[in-house]
Amino acid sequence: MKLYGAILSPFVCRVALGLSHKNLKYDMVMPEDGLQSPEYLRINPIGKIPTLQDGKVRLPESGVILEYLDAKYGNRKKLFPGMPGASAKVRLICKILEEYVGPATFGLFGQTDPKKRNKKVIKEKKIEVEKSLDWLNKFISTGPYAAGKTFSAADCYFVPAMFWLHALLPQVGVKDPLAKHKNVKKAWIAVKRDKMVRNTLKDMGKMMKTFRAG
């Protein structure tokens, strides 16, 4: 099995966590000649990461890949619970993180350089981040995992989202991004007790240092 992408990408990280949770062996590689190379576009015509190659199956989009993994490898640890209510909660947390928390957070990506900052943009994005975290705070479990007692797809979304939140917000003056969101903070503290999560965060941290060093 091959996963195209890099662990620092929140989208790739979701899939990497899902694969690790199911104890599925895989190789992670970046497309040799770039995302728009003819070779990679034959694998994924969308030209983005991640792409999962599992035998003859080639799939883009992290959410689709996680659903596929649960469907094909259902005999291994689940990413989506079988009970309708529990499954809906996992998907809701994923949705809030993907549609609201993530975009608001990454809206600050271009604002970390003091010389190039737009105060208006920073103010607007901070408000969006606070609002999205407030929504998440109302639905997230306080541990040991984002959606309850077991690791799920919700954690695959939650872990990279929190990594990037804590990487970007302090650079625009927010020392503790979760100060006003106690449930999210408790969930973040709890999920980091998982060894697989800690190892993933360590790998992301190493790659972040390389990225910042240029």
Plain-language structure description:
This protein is globular. By secondary structure, the protein is of the alpha+beta class. The protein has two domains: 2-72, Glutaredoxin (3-Layer(aba) Sandwich), CATH 3.40.30; 84-213, Glutathione S-transferase Yfyf (Class Pi), Chain A, domain 2, CATH 1.20.1050. The chain is built from eight helices and four strands. It has a four-stranded mixed sheet with strand order 2-1-3-4, with helices on one face. α1 runs parallel beside α3 and α4 packs parallel to α6.
List the helices and strands and how they pair.
Layout: E1 2-4, H1 10-21, E2 27-29, H2 38-43, E3 51-54, E4 57-60, H3 62-72, H4 84-106, H5 119-139, H6 153-168, H7 182-191, H8 195-213
Parallel strand pairs: 1-2
Antiparallel strand pairs: 1-3, 3-4
Helix pairs in contact: 1-3, 1-6, 4-5, 4-6
